[in-house]
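To: structure desk
From: M.T.
Subject: fold request, one chain
Message: Could you run this one when you get a chance? Sequence is below, nothing fancy, just the single chain.
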Amino acid sequence: MSNLFLEFIFAFLGTFGFAIIFNVPLRQMPVASLVGGLGWVTYHVAVDLGTTVPIACFLGACMVGLTSDIASRIRKEAATIFVIPGVLPLVPGAGTYYTMLAIVEGNLDKAAATGVQTLAMAGSIALGLLVIGTVIQILRSATANIRKKTA
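Reply: Done. Structure tokens follow.
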């Protein structure tokens, strides 16, 4: 459990650094960092429970999307302020590096395997954000329609 807490702290700090780079307003930086930390913990717990890495990335991105939307409503800011730095701990930078390294070394089999895994991770991150955004939009439309009908 303490390992998971340490991972949360490191993801929080990493996200905080990217929040600085992306000029997130100072008062929103802790919240954006919390979003990134929760996304990483979700990813890590999913991997520990035995899911594949792309599915874990999908779940982590869903957490980032959901918490970003909640934070944007509470803090009255655009959700992108929380999504962009929050999703960065999930981005498969090491996979991209190792794919390029394998290509440079001429090991095309390893490059293909690593590249497919990296693309699956990146695609699942995008899909997770898309699914959550779509579900939230559908729920908003449905509640707005219900309010119109009852009013």
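Reply (cont.): The mean pLDDT is 94. Let me know if you need anything else for the meeting.
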